[in-house]
Amino acid sequence: MKYLAIADELRGRIARGDLPPGARVPSTRRLATDHGVAMATAAKALALLGQEGLVHAEPRSGTVVAGREHRGGRRGLTREQLVRTAIAIADTEGLGALSMRGVAARLGVAAMAPYRYVRGKDELVLLMADAAFGERGYPAKPSGDWRERLTLGGRTLWSLFRRHPWLAQLGPITRPLPLRNLATHGEWALSALAELGVDAATLCNLHVLFFSHVQGMAVHLEREQNALASSGLTEEDWMDHQGPAVTAMAAGHPTFARMLADLTETGYDLVLDDIFELGMRALLDGLALRFGR
After folding, report:
1. Cα separation, 249 vs 243, whole angstroms
2. What's the sign of the alpha-carbon dihedral 111, 70, 64, 37?
3. Please, which domain of life does this record's source organism belong to (predicted)?
4. pLDDT at 27 > cutoff 90
5. Are the C-beta atoms of residues 218 and 158 closer than 8 Å to each other?
6. Which residues pair with residue 57 across a beta bridge?
7. What is d(CA 23, CA 52) in angstroms, rounded to the nearest whole number?
8. Up-side HSE of residue 25: CA atoms within 13 Å toward CB?
9. Residue 65 belongs to what H/E stretch?
10. Termini Cα distance of the chain
11. d(CA 70, CA 54)
12. C-alpha dist (Å) from residue 238 to 49, 166, 246, 262
């Protein structure tokens, strides 16, 4: 069977030391692509190695080769293990690759075992999101004016979206998630915006505007990961490939054409971190001007 062949290959690489303890094992998507199999088949190979104690899931790293201290089987499963393993999968492979069966495979447990701790994927994703938003907080005693505090709030959220790109994909701003740790970020931003002296409806709208800027930029993080995985092209490779089409598109659009010519001459890298900061400054400048603060 194909999954046994994949497992044998990985087992051999581990035995030879090509994949030493702590080394990251190819992702399910990578194995599926390299071996021309379905992702479920690749996941089954990793599950087999997990059951043998050769690999285990590591938060924010994916599946890694187990050290001696991990070998010999896994202790009783906990909800914390389940959530952290699911986060590790989503961080490295995207939310679309997450499944209850895949989480069980990474943990080396029976396919139905996770259902003893959560009702299904929807509940698991909410637990993942709450855990991720809880990874960073704020000073117990806020300092600085409204602008400084809102800047800290924006950068804190951005760092979490950076660490967990899938967070920005969870739902529209019109359907906020009922998460305790997300509420902590909301309270920090609202307390800063309240200093503008606005009514409740305006305060709510401004908070939506603020959060939308952070989330709206972060949406592109996982999309870029997915584009790279599906095409094999980096951003630079893709732009080089699209060069002739972009040049043709610029015909008849003089401002666009001049911009492209200048950027080609000076060099340009689209850096989302820089654009996020530019947008934050513009947003805060606008609020200061609008509300006299």
Report:
1. 10
2. negative
3. Bacteria
4. no
5. yes
6. 63
7. 17
8. 32
9. strand 62-65
10. 68
11. 8
12. 36, 22, 11, 20
Q: Any idea where the domains of the chain sit in the sequence?
A: 2-133, 146-291
The CATH superfamily holding the domain 146-291 is: Tetracycline Repressor, domain 2 (1.10.357.10)
pTM score > 0.85 for this model? no
Tens-place pLDDT, residues 254-281: 999 999 889 888 988 889 999 999 999 9
User: Was domain 2-133 assigned CATH 3.40.50.1220?
Assistant: no
Instruction: Say if 2-133 and 146-291 have the same CATH topology.
Output: no
**Cα–Cα distance, 279 to 202 (Å, whole number):** 20
Could you give the residue ranges of the DSSP H alpha helices within 194-271?
200-231, 235-250, 254-266
Contacts of residue 191, Cβ cutoff 8 Å, sequence gap at least 6: 142, 149
Tokens 């924006």 belong to: 154
Q: For residue 105, give the nearest of 18, 45, 173 by alpha carbon.
A: 45
Tokens standing for 286? Answer: 């606008």
Residue keyed to tokens 């201290």:
69
